[in-house]
Protein: Venom dipeptidyl peptidase 4
Amino acid sequence: MSAGRVSDTGMSSPRVSLEMGTNSHEDLLDDKSRGRCNRRTLIFTGGLTTVVVVTVVVLLLTLGGNDQGGNSSESKDPRPPFSLENYLDGNFSAVRFNASWVSDSELMYTNKLGELVLLDVLTNKTETLLTPQEDERLSISFVKQLSADKQFLLIAYDYQKKFRHSYYANYTVINLSTKVATDLIRPDGSQRLQLVKWAPQGNALAYVGNYNIFYKKAADDKDIVTLTNTDKPDILSNGIPDWVYEGIYYTLEIREEVIGDNTAMWFSPDGSKLAYITFDDSNVKTMNFPYYGQPDEVFFQYPIDIKIRYPKPGSPNPTVTLNSVDLTVPGSTVPVVLTPPAEVGEDHIITTVTWTKVNEVLAVWMNRVQNRMLITTHDASGSGSPVTVLDKQQENGWVDQFVPPKVSADGNRFLIISSQNQGTVGDFRHLTLVTKDVSKGAKATTALTRGEFVVTSIVGWDETDGKIYFLATSPNEPAQQSLYSVSDNVASPSDPVCISCGVRITESRLACTYVAASFSKAHSYYTLTCNGPDVPGVVIFNKNRDRLAVWEENTRLFDFMNSHSRPTSKRLFVDVPGGMQAYVEMLLPPDMDTSGNTKYPMLINVYGGPDSSQVNDRFKGDWGTYLTTNKSIIYAYIDGRGSGLKGDKVLFAGYRKLGSVEIEDQINVTRYLQDTFPYIDKTRTAIWGWSYGGYSTGMALAKDTSGVFRCGISVAPVTDWAYYDTIYTERYMGLPTESDNYLGYRDANLNLIVDNLGRNEDRYMLIHGTADDNVHYQQAMMLSKALEAKDILFHQQSYPDEAHGLSGVSPHLYHTLESFLDKCLDLPKRL
Structure:
């Protein structure tokens, strides 16, 4: 280490573990770890030369069991195990942060009486904005947003889902002074809208209905300005994305984010202009599937044919057009088209848009296979050509820029997360400052952080104090996510400071090692959400890190968890080919005999998709919690090659060859666990997963020639990447053409290698919903045909009219999963 200073983390050295019962918060160490220091040093570099050493507590998650041959009856946990009903009934659910910052000191939230309230954290005074008695729709609304001038409240109700993030709803604006409500309508009188956005100043509104954009210069203005007037719903979409661009956030589903939500229009900083994208799906092919309806209704005598414009690898993508319209010119709604840079080609993708100034739009463009990105600025009037601010190409991988850059007040600088070289260990994603005007000798890009860790999110930029706030993992501990700050002064690099390290919701809780944060408008205050390892909670701080209030303790959940026996967690790194390591977590049953005299079944919960991660310090209360405590199953996760948060070398290991290295790691690391820990029953090990995890399960069973897994369950799996969508698949696989990666697609096709799924009739179970608009039911049917053609017996469960999440049949689903595992793993009946 060099002569860097130790940053002030404001923390002590608490005892930590994932065993959060009332019996012990002691560190859980195996024999090899005993005697080691329970602190780890984090090395950050601000700029290029200054080193800072930040000391934080590391979560030690290895279990020291009874090596003498089992636990005595006196040490048995007397608390009852969790039940399946605890999971299905939502007993593990935490109350989340239910407020939003509306100024630099004010939070808006709904109190226990259903009233909408403003809390000033500076004065601790509250103001009631609206009560259910004043407008009964408040109690059924799912959107509550205040106008910039705080004069009007927008509410949305009568929710009707369309795709994953898109929906139809009725919207109303309420004058908070007079309590007079005005329904937002389209010019044809319809109230069904798809999106409404406040302007950043005053109380103007832009909204989308029937895929067209409308504008009101004031919330209670009777005049509606029609900004677009296309008459091809579901083919031409303005201001909201189509299916493939809508995407999703990080979940345990396949990640295919582009726009990432239901928004594709953006006001300029002063509200005088609007940028929006038009999506033209004219050439996108249609995917059809039946909706069967209710069995007792004659209306469904014939199933309804659902049609979705869904591009699949190698087929036409939507054509996207970036537009700008001046809202200050009376009667003028003719948009200006902002042309893309020629370098990304005609078949390009636009991933995000923001404004840098009142007359300048910034857009992020990519080529179709997403290994080249250009960040450009455009004059909102359409004059001139786009100016390229950053041109980045990624060899042997893809470019990841799906979040809008955070732009400085003058519009001349912006922040992104970008891969930066860290020497022999390769590239890691770091906080990067981009300067538009390099004429004065400034560097175009400057890395503000450096080291073997990953910056995951930029949460604030306080230009007054010159501080940037961001979330990041810890070096050598990708399971943690903490809040840090660093100076934005590139001329005088400083040391990042860990702000959240050592924070606890209360003194009786464990230190927060997996957090999220939300800052007030001028960064004077922030809320810190502690998502684990203990029961989640929320605390309000000022920017000097003084604790102002505990917003949410989740006492009910804390007491509920501690009234039951709890699993403990053992984590370890396992070497895999290429000088890399897989990160493993095993959740172990309470009162477990680790001597090897008792053998325990193990279930691997696999995802395995690119840039995913399952081993983390988040609070866990799920199906696995039930299985470990109630049925004494070891429940394990393996983040192998291709997973995120461990650098680009690991991340890109499976590039253009899905179904290869990530599957090998699931098989070989599981075998390593079986051989290393005598308490694991080699003859009773299973694997299961959902979505990409369902694909990983099928591929693992297909490639497992040595009997590592006795059985497996695939829920809503991809089986052939040619059937999935373009944006996601081509990012990781390229095109399925002879000139590109046709052989890669064939090698990744589960349907072509099914022989090993039929070792016995209870080896494989396939589950899918027929109305899955994400991973189509076609995927399961093609695998079924392949298995049936080879006379391979297997279990299958189809859920009519259920989408990807199978949310309407949860009890039946988990009873089905459990029944299959009971038979496969010879499990006892649940308690």
